[in-house]
Design brief:
The chain is mainly alpha-helical. The protein has helices at 2-27, 30-50, 54-59, 65-86.
Length: 104
């Protein structure tokens, strides 16, 4: 009877670890990291563009390059975060890591 009890415990632990693994995979999805960084830097560069002096704008041939670059970075960051939201990563298939298949 202790064998069946230990098998149930083992199965429960495996299920918990698979859930934690899937959560970690979603947390460290590269789209989240790239999107977050682009949004953060986009906000900083946009603020720099909004506070640019006339001398700074004249250096860039009359174009407020910080403003346009910051807005572009914000748009790209939001794109990555929306993409992550609409197409979340699938959890890894049970039974092993990708690439563990045996070849004949």
């Amino acid at each position: 009877m202790s064998e069946s009890h230990s098998e149930k415990d083992l199965q429960r632990e495996i299920t918990e670890l698979e859930g934690k693994s899937a959560t970690a995979a979603r947390l460290f999805d590269i789209r989240r990291i790239i999107g977050g960084l682009f949004v953060l830097y986009g906000v900083i560069v946009t603020i720099a563009g909004l506070t640019a002096s006339d001398a700074d704008i004249d250096k860039a041939a009359g174009v407020n390059i910080n403003l346009w670059t910051g807005l572009g970075m914000l748009a790209l960051g939001v794109f990555f975060l929306v993409w992550l939201r609409l197409r979340p990563s699938a959890p890894p298939p049970p039974g092993g890591e990708p690439g563990d298949e045996t070849r004949e």
